[in-house]
Amino acid sequence: MENISFRTTVLPLSDRLFRLALRITMNRAEAEDVVQDTLLKVWEQRNEWEQIDSLEAFALTICRNRALDVKKRAGRNNTSLDKIDSVQPSIFNLQSSIEEREQLSLVRKFMDELPEVQRSIMLLRDIEGKTYQEIAQTLDISETQVKVYLHRARTKIKERIWTINT
Hints:
By secondary structure, the protein is mainly α. The chain folds into two domains: about 1-80, Rna Polymerase Sigma Factor, Chain: A (Orthogonal Bundle); about 90-165, Orthogonal Bundle (Arc Repressor Mutant, subunit A), CATH 1.10.10. It has helices spanning about 5-10, 15-25, 30-45, 55-75, 95-110, 115-125, 130-140, 145-165. Helix 3 crosses helix 4 and helix 6 packs across helix 8. The protein is globular, with a radius of gyration of 18 Å. The protein starts with 5 loop residues before the first helix and ends with a helix.
């Protein structure tokens, strides 16, 4: 990597780090603290940046691990996040909008009930749009494991939704 700058390379990752931390800790204040800790740890490793293949994967790994530590220390079980829907109600099709919100709410609920690895992979792949390789680097597992965990997570959620709808 050339010309790595904290301001231009690391700080733009703050939003992604926050979303990951919030999804794991399920507490806005704790997620903000996790992001601050993550940015500090990345800064402390600035002499090693040239040897790191993906600074983003490195930062996401630190963030994930720190968020899991915070969650474990707090002794929290999985609970739903505050509902922040990006779905806007349609004036012409209110019923469809309500159904979409209910489906989204169910998916979020079922994601919260997944094992931590599966939930993290779904978050990174389906919400953050990361590649299998980036997820594998972030979680320190193989790409094959990423694909298997993702398939299992999606299958569980589909099965749960299917049983509710039938």
